[in-house]
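Standup notes
- DV: blocked on the single-chain target, sequence here:
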Amino acid sequence: MDLTPKKRKRLTYWVIGVAAACIAIIFGLKNIDMVRETFSWIIGLIMPLIIGLIIALIINVPMRFFEKILFSKSTKLKNPKIKTVISFTVSLILILGILAGVVWLVIPELVDAVAVIVDGALEFIDRISGMTKEEIAQLPLGKLLLDIDWDKTLSTLQNWIKSQGGEIVDTAVGTVSSVATGIYDFFIAIVFAVYIIFNKATLKRQVVRLVRVWVPENIADFTIHATKILGKNFRNFVSGQSLEAVILGVLCMLGMLILRIPYAPMVGALVGVTAIIPVVGGFIGAGVGAFMILTVSPVKAMIFLIFILVLQQIEGNVIYPKVMGSSVSLPSMWILAAVTIGGGIAGAVGMLLAVPVASTIYTLVGEATNKRENKNAEIETKTEIIDQQ
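- DV (later): unblocked, structure below
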């Protein structure tokens, strides 16, 4: 085979690249623990920036609404920067207001529920201490309480606390340090999100320019096309998931009011907010709600659990496919798979990002499949024409 200097140079680059990739893979497999630690260190280092990007993308959803709908026909606000500032301020107030309202509804009631449990436990202990063995034996699980050597249990607990005292202090210090680090990282994320929002047009032009210049043309076109689809899917996902969360929260509150279950507004708001996390979020809010209702009435708590399970089935099989089906082009089965994988990789953040990413992959694979089918159909048509000739 006669190779020109240009082809020989390109072939050399390919051989060197493949060899380097093989060496890197072999090295990574032999030092998998070091690779995992390095990867975790890099993710931890850039996590504030990732969170900031996610915050910017979420805030950008209502911002686009205010910029396009409310200010589209405005003649007074011609400066785009003023529109951006007003839209950002209104969107931030809206999001913070919703979160503050939920906290105002949930936290006081949750504190009261914990206080009720603590008071009940102390009252039970006082009651037990004043009873005879015969009276204790008549209580549910009374014989089990009498069989326990409380002096030995208390002594074991005291010895354990003494032996683990240093570790407990270290854990407490580590927790405080983690909280401080988390607050600092969140502050950095907020600053980064604000920078992205107010410079999104410039950043978009810069990224597109870099991709066009440094990436081969076909790969650059695919990357820009995939990014556009991902951005659209993420906006549609946030909008659809927020609408679905509002519907679920309202239905939960109305059902609890009809069934005369306590904490209806608070639990409805909590279920609605946690439902922003796809598939599993509503169950998290329902678990906290059931715990609080349990402090008032175990029977009502059981009724609430049955009600929320029925509501989740209706929501998952009727409401969710209708709302999200028009928002993201992804079947319910793949939504569940994406949420499961995303949660296993990156927790709640992974759950939020999994659906738009999976929807983008689903769309791109569908486009590639249709393109391949059309190409095969053209080849078959040409072959048939040739055969007929």
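- Follow-up: The mean pLDDT is 77.
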